Amino acid sequence: MNYICPICNGFQSLSTHCESCGQPMEDAGRLYDYYGDYSPYRPIEDSKLTNGLPDAQQHLCVHMGWCEHCKKEVWLAVQEWHR
Hints:
By secondary structure, this protein is of the alpha+beta class. Helix content is 13%, strand content 28%. The chain has one domain (3-82).
């Protein structure tokens, strides 16, 4: 079955607030893109199989959230849509 991330595909924007200061968080991209120089070019499903997270089984796309105000960074799991 095919699943897609609504954030990566531009159907929705990341909408969450920082737990520390309450300011809106920015989407800093997919967690998988931070693994190394060539990680953005790896197939997404391949990255999910080797990252140690339950994202492949639960059809999640993990994004990095960034708070410009307090410089906090968090992982945000986005539920993928069945296509």
